[in-house]
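Course exercise 7: structure representation. Students receive a sequence record and must write out the corresponding structure in token form. The form below is the worked example handed out in class, using Chemotaxis protein CheW (180 residues). Read each field label carefully; the graders check that inputs and outputs are placed in the correct fields and that the protein name is recorded exactly as given.

STUDENT ID: A-19
EXERCISE PROTEIN: Chemotaxis protein CheW
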Amino acid sequence: MSSNQQSHPILNHQLMNASRDNQFVTFQVGEEFYGIEIMIVQEIIRYKKPTRVFNTPPVIKGVINFRGDIIPIIDMNIKFKLPPKEYDEYTVVIVVEVKGKTMGIIVDRISDILTFEKEEIKVVDNELAEDMKTNYLRGLVDTDDRVIMLLDPFKLLSFEELNQITEMTENEADTDKTEK
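STUDENT ANSWER:
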């Protein structure tokens, strides 16, 4: 593994040993805390500047090499329409697999791996999600010191964004075949 792509060994060890439902990798974007299901997380790596790909939506910052595969990188600050943020030593990429596609999401910092009981998760109804323009929320958890927004990974990307990622990964697979 290159020095630019260092992983977080403690959290990645926890990821490898995860098996319970309702476990979430929690992270910060802007001032808010979010969680994503641990079972779709493949690895957490230090931020590495992606290679920009022309004609992609601004939310797709580019691509990186992850274990020999080229994967797209999504900037969550842009996705959540937050002001641009300077990446720092706490910025990480959470590598996830959604709908059979591997991609990375850039977050400001990793928080923890937490387990929530089903009763603790307050479901976000469709009307509220539509009003708040947060269709990608699965639910909310009110902890002692903050509210954590749990993301629905299957609604995180728009149809157009997912199609562009599919095209990017298919083009990469075609390139690999012609080079061999």
